[in-house]
Amino acid sequence: MEIIAALANGFIELFKAGAATFVAWVTGIIPLVIVLMTAVSSVIKIIGEDRVYSLAQTATKYTLTRYTIVPILAVIFLVNPMCYTFGRFVEEKYKPAFYDAAVSFVHPVTGLFPHANGGELFVYMGIAAGINQLGLPLGELAIRYFAVGIIVILMRGIVTEKIYAMMKK
To answer: Angle formed by the axes of helices 69-78 and 138-168, to 10°?
Structure first.
């Protein structure tokens, strides 16, 4: 009987922990994400959607910017999964590589721009909790994630572009 009672208590404690986490998000991260999304939308409106799209279309002409600047802007301003719509500015032969670069950046961006991908935020927050326990600064982690993410998306974009070109032949 004691084993059944212990299992029942453990089962309910699991849900209590989940509820506590949910309450923390409702009072912490959710308002932050909403404010960030509002700010990004406001910046796009202030700059002008036409200007943002014109910049994106120009940037897709060059390999370096096609797999760095454009995916970064797309993920930050349009967030996941809308960021993939920036692919419409890319020539057809570059679309698979652009998608690869964009999808590879939705995790590294979360430390600096948590609104960009709520699903990946859970992963980042788990890592951040461990960094906090070690007494290390989170800002450095976020910047390193971001910087390494840029390098990775550039490499993935170039490699995927070459693989696609070979497969198309």
So the answer is: 120
pLDDT of residue 31: 81
Residue 59: count other Cβ atoms within 10 Å of its Cβ.
Answer: 18
Into how many domains does the chain fold?
Answer: 1
Instruction: Tell whether the model's pLDDT for residue 83 goes beyond 90.
Output: no
SS (H, E, C) 68-122: CHHHHHHHHHHCCCHHHHHHHHCCHHHHHHHHHHHHHCCCCCCCCCHHHCHHHHH
Domain containing 118: what range? Answer: 48-168
Single-letter amino acid code for the residue at 164: Y
* CA separation for the pair 113, 110 (Å, rounded): 5
Res. 58 pLDDT band, cuts 50 70 90: confident
Residue 29 lies in a domain: no
Residue 32 lies in a domain: no
142 domain-assigned: yes
Instruction: Count helices and strands (H / E) in the chain.
Output: 8, 0
For residue 1, is it within any domain?
A: no
How far, in Å, CA of 47 to CA of 81, rounded? 22
49 touches 76 (CB < 8 A): no
